[in-house]
Design goal:
41 residues; single chain; 4-stranded antiparallel beta sheet; mainly beta; 59% strand; 0% helix
């Protein structure tokens, strides 16, 4: 399992990569810095 911090044009994504899929844990808007947590546990 690894944690991935990805940066896109307008957002930062915090992901966890397991052996079979990638789950997005947190989404941060780059301009407003609003944080949204994903609903999948």
């Amino acid at each position: 399992m690894s944690v991935i911090f990805a940066m896109y044009d307008s957002a930062y994504l915090l992901c966890v990569h397991t052996h079979d899929d990638i789950k997005i844990i947190m989404y941060i808007d780059k301009y407003t810095l609003n944080m949204r947590f994903s609903d999948t546990r």
